[in-house]
Amino acid sequence: MSKKKMLILCTGNSCRSQMAEGWVRALKGDTFDVWSAGIEKHGLNPHAVKVMAEAGVDISSHVSKLVGDLPQQEYDYIITVCGHASENCPFFPGAARRVHAGFDDPPKLAEHATSEEEALVHYRRVRDEIRAWAASLPASLE
């Protein structure tokens, strides 16, 4: 059986979509080929890298990408993980199914944190929510 192709989109491809790509690859790599991209490029968030490493998933080699940076191909699923990406999702030709799986924005949640440890609490919560979503695939796509 061939793998389904999944594209995970968020605004800046720096945190949530990167974590989701890492989790889908780690937990469901036998079912999905997965890519992530953003509507803008914000750079890979170092806190996202850190909390994913704590959970045993290395995303340190990921880079922030735009949709146009990816190879031209048809996807089976386009997943948006933030409201902005959902509202501004580019058009993709073909039969891709669009699914919104929204998650809170860790950098926004952590903007008033007084220490790195306090900030990481928010990243860990969202990381664990994304992990639960990825673990439930493909059922969470219906």
Automatic annotation (TrEMBL):
InterPro entries: Ptyr_pPase, Ptyr_pPase_sf. SMART domains: LMWPc. CDD domains: LMWP_ArsC. The gene is arsC. It comes from the Bacteria. Transmembrane segments: none annotated. Residues 4-140 form the Phosphotyrosine protein phosphatase I domain. This is Arsenate reductase. One of its GO terms (biological process) is response to arsenic-containing substance. Keywords: Arsenical resistance.
